[in-house]
Amino acid sequence: MTSPSHDQHAPQRFSARAAAYVASAVHASGADLDRMAEAASRAAPARLLDIGTGGGHVAYALAPHAGAVVAVDPAQGMLDAMAAEAGRRGLATITTVRAPAERLPFADAAFDAVASRFSAHHWGSLSRGLAEARRVCRTGALALFADIVAPPTALCDTHLQAVELLRDPSHVRDYSLAEWTAHLAHAGFAAAAIYPTRLRMDFPAWTARMDTPPDLQAAIRMLQHSAPAEVRDHFAIEADGSFTIDSMLIEARAI
């Protein structure tokens, strides 16, 4: 049996679940999304790039503050679903391009701002994705990156990566804040502000969104039941399997 590559696997999984991500309440709102819109309103970029657009919620929120938004995703199904939703919302300045974060088909310095939210943990390489984001931005461009954050302790980090992978085999890694800041600096971004937050994941909705099979749901619940007190406390694991994770928004500039 031949397994698909990661570049094939992730788009296949997400194309089939595009409608769920367009409709996802977790992705459609949040203080981080509001802050991204505020930052975009201050910068007023002529061209903004949304990397890993998924259900399109960054593009929808930032489009009123940019001259044009280009939404990129490797999953054509995601792009089709979000383009249809953008049309329903009357957001005519949004266009879509199919591409992975690590290979953006744009010229150097083509954008005045770049944004990405809840996408980077699926990239095959965070360093290459950020390097590409920097390449296509002009110097001084606004850069907004939001994602799940791995805990600083190895014990909790391992638990998080395990349940993420059981839920979605296209998961690569939730990075720590230290990893994020190091990769951003190496790519040529200077962090101006970091906004941490906590995000509750409703277990039934979280697993339904990726159509996680019952046996893998049971494996996640087994890990939760057997987790030591430090893990249960950090993630505030609830009786039904719902839990709370760390996330962050980093506002940066291309230097």
Please tell me about this protein's structure.
This protein has 255 residues and is of the alpha/beta class. Helix content is 45%, strand content 24%. It has helices at residues 6-15, 18-23, 25-28, 31-43, 57-62, 76-88, 126-135, 154-167, 177-187, 203-209, 214-226, 229-235, and strands at 47-51, 68-73, 94-98, 111-117, 137-149, 189-201, 243-254. The longest helix is centred in the middle third of the chain and has 14 residues, at 154-167. It is globular and about 50 Å long. Helix 1 (6-15) runs parallel beside helix 6. It has a seven-stranded mixed β-sheet, sandwiched between helices. The model has no long low-confidence stretch (mean pLDDT 92). The protein is built from twelve helices and seven strands. It has a single domain, classed as 3-Layer(aba) Sandwich (Rossmann fold), CATH 3.40.50.150.
Lay out the secondary structure.
Elements: H1 6-15, H2 18-23, H3 25-28, H4 31-43, E1 47-51, H5 57-62, E2 68-73, H6 76-88, E3 94-98, E4 111-117, H7 126-135, E5 137-149, H8 154-167, H9 177-187, E6 189-201, H10 203-209, H11 214-226, H12 229-235, E7 243-254
